[in-house]
Amino acid sequence: MKLELREVDEFIDVSHWQTSKDGSHQYCLIKNCYSRPDFYAVVEYIREHGYPAKFYNKTYTYLNIGGFKYWTMGSPLDKTILINRTEIEP
Predict the structure, then answer these.
(1) How far apart are alpha carbons 50 and 69 in whole angstroms?
(2) CA 30 – CA 70 distance, rounded (Å)
(3) CA angle 38-43-49, nearest 5°?
(4) How far apart are CA 88 and CA 90, in angstroms?
(5) How far is the C-alpha of 43 from the C-alpha of 48, rounded, in Å?
(6) Phi, psi (5° rounding) for residue 5?
(7) Residue 84: what are its φ and ψ, rounded to 5°?
(8) Domain extent listing, the chain
(9) Which residues contact 9 (CB under 8 A, 6 or more apart)?
(10) 55 burial class (0-12, 13-18, 19+ CB within 10 angstroms)?
(11) Which partner for 39 in 6, 14, 18, 33 could form a disulfide, CB atoms 3.0-4.6 Å apart?
(12) pLDDT tens digit string along 28-81?
């Protein structure tokens, strides 16, 4: 399923975001999502429309939307269980 940016925004707005233990970012777990197909479609959207950037010695694909930077850990789609986000620093 291919999503438009508007649909990605809607998914982001209704998803449950938890704060990491160290407070550095938030994450959305697939088990807490209202729709697994939408979760996977958002992961694909991030990976298709994002940009590569290094975090320490690993490269991830990030996507900036509405003041936040979103990324996944790069696992195969069917093994991906979370989407991360952090506020974009000004």
Answers:
(1) 10
(2) 15
(3) 120
(4) 6
(5) 9
(6) -55, -40
(7) -100, 155
(8) 5-87
(9) 65, 66
(10) exposed
(11) 33
(12) 999 999 899 999 999 999 999 999 998 889 999 999 999 999 999 989 999 999
Residues 6+ apart with CB under 8 A from 90: none
Instruction: Give helix 5-14 / helix 36-49 axis angle, nearest 10°.
Output: 130
Q: Which residue has the tokens 């809607």?
A: 10
Phi and psi at 63, nearest 5°, equal -140, 125
Residue 74, CA distances (Å) to 21, 29, 46, 77 in order: 21, 15, 11, 8
Nearest to 77 by CA among 32, 30, 16, 33: 30
- In contact, 46 and 63? CB cutoff 8 Å: yes
